[in-house]
Design a protein that fits this description.
With 62 residues, this protein is mainly α. It is 50% helix and 0% strand.
């Protein structure tokens, strides 16, 4: 099996302190996760997992 020039595996992007501050602010203002996902260029799952690890809720329907 030949390897493709482009790898389908994505690299992880670490959350900076500014990213965490932004997630917390949008948690408080109850921004929909889909909107936050597009704004931060991260998956909804990634944002939900980070919110879970921070112990905060995320989304407008919690």
């Amino acid at each position: 099996m030949a390897k493709n020039a482009k790898s389908s595996k994505k690299s992880r992007k670490a959350y900076s302190a500014a990213d965490i501050k932004l997630v917390k602010a949008h948690s408080k203002s109850r921004t929909p996760v889909s909107k936050l996902s597009k704004m931060m260029k991260r998956s909804e799952g990634s944002l939900r997992q980070k919110a879970l690890s921070l112990g905060i809720g995320l989304g407008h329907l919690r």
